[in-house]
Amino acid sequence: MKIGSVAHKELFCRSFMETYREYDPKHLLWPELDDAALTRLRSIPFWDQALDTERKAGVMVSSYAATVSDPVLKEAIALQGKDEGDEGDEGVEAGGQRR
Question: Within a domain: residue 97?
Answer without folding.
Answer: no
